[in-house]
TrEMBL record:
Source species of the chain: Pallidibacillus thermolactis
InterPro entries, A to Z: RNA-binding_CRM (IPR001890), RNA-binding_domain (IPR051925), RNA-binding_YhbY (IPR017924), YhbY-like_sf (IPR035920)
Keyword terms, alphabetized: RNA-binding
PANTHER family associated with the record: RNA-BINDING PROTEIN YHBY
CRM domain location: 1-96
Domain of life the protein comes from: Bacteria
Taxonomic path: Bacteria, Bacillati, Bacillota, Bacilli, Bacillales
Gene name in the database record: yhbY
Keyword Nuclease in record: no
Name by which UniProt lists this protein: Ribosome assembly RNA-binding protein YhbY
Amino acid sequence: MLTGKQKRYLRSLAHHLNPIFQVGKGGVNDNMIKQIADALEARELLKVSVLQNCEFDKETVAENLVKGTKAELVQIIGNTIVLYKESKENKKIELP
């Protein structure tokens, strides 16, 4: 689990990132979870945006992504979800 201080640090790093995935009408599926997991392995920190036409609320989408990718939820801001997962091979982010 992330501490408040670590989450603040990750939020500051995520601030300039653009969402690289969008969750639309179909919600979260296995293929999307696999792609996000791969992207997390490469980047450690990423944003996912929840589109207006998504049938699920952003909290449910975030919960499904966290469960599926075993990542940490850093924050939900507007319709954007920020996820963090420590990379096994490409560790870049040193948490405080």
